[in-house]
């Protein structure tokens, strides 16, 4: 892996002329200057007018699940419920080493497509124990020169339905997990779902951690966990520190109630993460025509000032048989799924997988300004529109100024 000193003749979003990015020895962007000429040495990259962006950010992934499709029976119904059942059986037998090797494969794939930051959820509980967590944490350590990874301790089987899971989550946080995860809608009753959310905030306060909760990942228009999460965020003083992942039921609410929930999310400064590939695949399975698309209301959330980012979610597992780890593909699907077809909307999708996602992960020193880390992706196109249209492999990916993929 080569350390790069200069990226010359780069096209960056919002600039009318090519620029040179001068990098410091410690891997930061030192200066951004008008382009001065061709690259002259091995420590320089000549972008030749190609688009240069800060690394893509995958806001929602499950590295413990990656490439596990061959380990489980076929998901004949294609539903979330059947996928959870198959995964519940197989995870009892998985070893940390098996999880680690599959996770590393997925990480390397994501990096090759320009991803520099990942937030991954890892299944912890009384059946999974900490074995999956051990595997993902080991994979993070082995790939730390390629990518930054935040790990969410995720109680896939619920909290009230899985007595003892809170102690397992506590140990996962002590081991190195960064965030408290949840799955509030996956409880027996509405009261249990509300208690689930309260317990997440108790644990987050105990460890002073942010929360990223799977929530209302269902077509059921009566699943109302998101508004409870947002209300608790305000009440518990956790504004800006909570992420609501999926939020599919919001698409099924009547418009008046949906508007109320969106206003509450904005007031609570809750981030929303959409996972277009997986939710297009899983949701609407019980619908006859017309079928719902299954995603949350991305355009309406953005218009209300809610920070929205996107994730791959799954790569070849019982929940989703496809997935490559390309955030350009994720954005491409989102453009289709929510009719984001104008030039400004397509540019906004570029933000969803970069700057919006940086807010979700609460990253500092991210971007193309002097002083930011030189976490960069070079794309052989001249615009964000062409990047999503063609979804090319990047000629170069840099992490802290070091070329980690070509």
Keywords:
TIM Barrel; 2 domains; four-stranded mixed β-sheet; 406 residues; alpha/beta; Urease, subunit C, domain 1; globular; eight-stranded parallel β-sheet; 13 helices
Tally of helical segments: 13
Task: Enumerate the strands of the largest sheet in spatial order, edge to edge or round the barrel.
Answer: 6-7-8-9-10-11-12-13
In CATH terms, what is the fold-level topology of the largest domain? Answer: TIM Barrel
Q: In CATH's first tier, which class of the largest domain applies?
A: Alpha Beta
* Structural class by sheet pairing and helices: alpha/beta
The topology string of helices and strands comes to: EEEEEEHHEHEHEHEHEHEHHEHHHEHEE
**Main β sheet profile:** 8 strands, parallel
Q: By CATH's scheme, which homologous superfamily of the largest domain applies? A: Metal-dependent hydrolases
Gyration radius, in Å: 21 Å
Share of β-strand residues: 15-25%
Work out the helicity level: 25-40%
Shape, principal axes of CA atoms: globular
Number-wise, the strands total 16
pLDDT < 50 stretches: none
Mean pLDDT: 96
Q: What layout of secondary structure does this protein have?
A:
Elements (H helix, E strand, L loop, with lengths): L5 E5 L8 E5 L5 E6 L9 E3 L4 E4 L1 E6 L18 H11 L5 H17 L2 E9 L7 H12 L5 E7 L10 H11 L3 E5 L6 H18 L3 E5 L9 H11 L6 E5 L8 H14 L2 E4 L1 H7 L15 H6 L4 E3 L16 H11 L5 H10 L2 H6 L15 E4 L4 H7 L5 E4 L2 E4 L1
Parallel strand pairs: 1-4, 6-7, 7-8, 8-9, 9-10, 10-11, 11-12, 12-13
Antiparallel strand pairs: 1-2, 2-3, 5-14, 14-15, 15-16
Helix pairs in contact: 2-3, 5-6, 6-7
